């Protein structure tokens, strides 16, 4: 078990193994990160902007993907809805001039869209537009971010153009109605 754990950490680039001496946490030569990924939502004059995905340096690497799914147990727990709750999903693959890629996924529970005409007509919109429509409908928005890291799946590694075994940062922003606590959206950024 210990050998398997050390081998997994070595594949992830987190430890170095010196024969006859042991395994050591890898030291970085530069303490500064190679890429800083900032997430923020700003509101100006009743209009919401996702300063990350709406930054002019990002462009869509391919056309957005839109679909509907039912919440899996893990996703239902993350959003705070019942398992199998229907969700609208809006995926965007963004790329900057340096070749960095970000996958941005927005989940909207069907019940959260109910009663908001523009969202009922077209729920597949960028996050800033969705938040503005929620605010226009009288929803008071509250945001909670959760950040984790994991190794990418082969599909993630290919899509984001990152080497296998390189940890991938995942940010999840849950948006709820401040007054009722009901979930309105979940953003996921890889």
What is the C-alpha radius of gyration, as a whole number of Å?
19 Å
| Share of residues in strands | 35-45%
The major beta sheet can be summarized as:
7 strands, antiparallel
Helix content class: 10-25%
Distance between the termini: 30 Å
Order of helices and strands: HEEEEEEHEEHHHEHEE
DSSP E strands, number = 11
Give the overall average pLDDT. Answer: 84
Number of helices: 6
- What structural class do you assign from the helix and strand content? alpha+beta
The 3D shape can be described as: elongated
Low-confidence stretches: 29-35
Detailed description of the structure:
- The structure is a single chain.
- With about 190 residues, this protein is of the alpha+beta class.
- The chain is about 25% helix and about 35% strand.
- It has six helices and eleven strands.
- The protein has helices at about 1-10, 75-80, 110-115, 115-120, 125-135, 155-160, and strands at about 15-20, 20-25, 40-45, 45-50, 60, 65-70, 85-95, 100-110, 140-150, 170-175, 185-190.
- The strands form three sheets. Strands 5, 6, 7, 8, 9, 10 and 11 form a seven-stranded antiparallel beta sheet that branches. Strands 1-2 form a two-stranded antiparallel ribbon. A two-stranded antiparallel sheet has the order 3-4.
- A hairpin with a 5-residue loop joins strand 10 (about 170-175) and strand 11 (about 185-190).
- The longest helix has 10 residues, at about 1-10.
- The radius of gyration is 19 Å and the shape is elongated.
- The two termini are about 30 Å apart.
- The model is unreliable at about 30-35 (pLDDT under 50).
